[in-house]
């Protein structure tokens, strides 16, 4: 005699398996889409940096690259903080200055993708940001957990400051209730190396080298 409960459990087991497969498939798609976008836009960024400095770009435009050397982290920065932008890259929050300008430059990222490494960031870690304005080096001066309503972390500042924003806790399932904030102060700024200057330098070195 077949037990009706056994059929129900079997059906439930198959349904849960199908949901798991679909969930993993969607995660894989999002992950690959973001990585492919990063690879493609990294090339676009190099071309843009070699061209000329820009004053403003529309939402969705690539504006730079962020690196945290100790964490071996690097990601393209895209203008905007909408869901589509944050799925593909680290987003520059509109209304804040662009890194390299005087004031508070704010970047946002998802805690389970690009900004997941922030859970391991430490005081005095170096953060480098490359834009058409040059290469900016920052040092972490503060980390803090705040509530979503604490938008004061985006307030304008007199000195050049970089603010990173992501959701918190990092291991939370679903919409996380808090925000993890990293603030860093500008310590150095240098211009971008000029491709033409590099080529001339190589040619001079070749001419001077003995045959």
Explain what this protein looks like in three dimensions:
The chain has three helices and eight strands. 32% of the residues lie in helices and 29% in strands. 27% of the residues are buried. The chain has one domain: Sortase, Chain: A, CATH 2.40.260. It has an eight-stranded mixed β-barrel with strand order 1-2-3-4-7-8-6-5. It is an alpha+beta fold and 211 residues long. The radius of gyration is 22 Å and the shape is elongated. The C terminus is likely disordered. Helix 2 links the parallel strand 2 and strand 3.
Cα(first) to Cα(last) distance is: 93 Å
Strand content: 25-35%
Number of strands: 8
Going across the major beta sheet, what is the strand order? 1-2-3-4-7-8-6-5
The major sheet is characterized as:
8 strands, mixed, barrel
CATH homologous superfamily title? Sortase
List keywords for this structure.
alpha+beta; Sortase, Chain: A; eight-stranded mixed beta barrel; 3 helices
Produce the secondary structure layout.
Elements: H1 4-51, E1 62-68, E2 73-79, H2 83-88, E3 90-92, E4 104-108, E5 126-131, E6 134-146, E7 161-168, E8 178-190, H3 195-208
Parallel strand pairs: 2-3, 4-7
Antiparallel strand pairs: 1-2, 1-5, 3-4, 5-6, 6-8, 7-8
């Amino acid at each position: 005699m077949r037990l009706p409960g056994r059929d129900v459990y079997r059906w439930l087991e198959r349904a849960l398996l199908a949901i798991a497969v679909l969930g993993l498939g969607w995660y894989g798609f999002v992950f690959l889409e973001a990585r492919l976008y990063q690879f493609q836009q990294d090339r676009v960024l190099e071309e843009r940096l070699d061209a000329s400095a820009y004053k403003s770009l529309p939402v969705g435009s690539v504006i730079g690259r962020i690196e945290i050397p100790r964490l071996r982290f690097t990601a393209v920065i895209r203008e905007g903080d909408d869901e589509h932008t944050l799925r593909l890259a680290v987003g520059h929050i509109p209304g804040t200055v662009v890194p390299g300008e005087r004031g508070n430059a704010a970047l946002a990222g998802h805690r389970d993708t690009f900004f997941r490494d922030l859970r391991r960031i430490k005081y005095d870690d170096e953060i480098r940001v490359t834009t058409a304005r040059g290469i900016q080096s920052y040092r972490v001066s503060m980390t803090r957990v705040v509530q979503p309503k604490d938008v004061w972390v985006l307030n304008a500042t007199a000195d050049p400051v970089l603010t990173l924003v992501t959701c918190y806790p990092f291991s939370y399932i679903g919409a996380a209730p808090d925000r993890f904030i990293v603030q860093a102060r500008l310590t150095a700024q240098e211009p971008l190396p000029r491709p033409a200057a590099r080529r001339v330098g190589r040619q001079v070195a070749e001419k001077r080298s003995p045959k």
